[in-house]
Amino acid sequence: MNLIQIENRTGKVKLNDAVTPWSSDDLIGDIEKLYGAKAVAENLRIGEFTAKADDALETLEIEINSPGGSVLDGYRVYHSLMGMRERGVKVIATGNGIVASMASVIFMAADERRITQGSRIMIHEAQQTVGGDSEDHARAAKILDEMSDEIASIYAGVTGADKDEMRELMKKETWMGAAEAIERKFADSIVGKSAVDIGGKGAKSETNNRMSILDRLLPNGELTAKLEAANGELVNAANEIQTLTNKLKEADAVLAEAADELREFKAKAETAEVQAKADKEAREAAEALAKPEVIEAKALELVASAEAPEAIANAISAKAAEMIASAGHALVDTTELSGSGKSILEQFNALQGEDATRFYKANRKEIIAAQLNS
What we know:
Blueprint: E1 5-7, E2 10-15, H1 21-31, H2 37-41, E3 45-46, E4 49-50, E5 59-66, H3 71-86, E6 90-100, H4 102-107, E7 112-116, E8 120-123, H5 134-159, H6 163-171, E9 174-176, H7 178-183, E10 189-191, H8 195-198, H9 201-217, H10 222-289, H11 292-305, H12 310-326, H13 344-350, H14 353-362, H15 364-373
Parallel strand pairs: 2-5, 5-6, 6-7, 6-8, 7-10
Antiparallel strand pairs: 1-2, 3-4, 8-9
């Protein structure tokens, strides 16, 4: 939707709807394409284009007929108009119908503010519909109070009135006709003439009836009520989104902590598994070494090497005797078992290397018994 007209270096736009994200986007999109002499002097770039003197505006006129709406989107339009003033464009706002709620804040962004006869300006506290627990309501109350205080500061800055006075008017939901708007300096001039000025009695009666209906309907009109409810729902939805975002961040932190704990547990489990494996291998090795056949083989190896000290030989003999006794065999006296007259031990000790090994294998029990009896 094209909202802008340009005539004689004057751009004209209209806000003839509730202040919503969609109406604000359309309006701001066209306003931001415009610029003035200051923007040209500063070589302002708009998209891919540089501001040129031939296209620079001198004035932007905005006609407002809106019941208000979203505070945040209203601020977007407000700052867009303030940006035009910074670009060297004079902004003139004309209230033509209803300039209520957030629309009245947008009205304050103009260098010059006009109001038509029969139009109304309404200011009130920021509002929203709140659901949830006490903390949700407390948070919403804080946000609404801050918003109302900011809006009161804007009114006070333009009108020269005290901010507290503006808050009082807002709390009362103050409606102003053209004359009162001039008196309170919300507007600078009145556009058009009243029926009294024209002098027509019929016209006067018709105007009075129309004004009476307007006074009765607008403060609590169905459209205004729906708009305020929708605005409250939007703000409430924004608060809920923020709450959910915070909870999501908390959940992410808990998840990250759980991941760290899982990694630590896994590392400990791997360490325990390695230790258990090492213990098992050591136990199996010890059990293998304790087998009689292993001990006997080791004894043979030591005897065959002829390097085993007497202490080792005695230890081997003691172990062998223990094994024989546990098997239920009696020790045999083998002091002299050979026809040579030499004891078995003397014969065995006289041998070396492979001869000693063969002799031990052939006379193992007798040698062990002789060692035990010696």
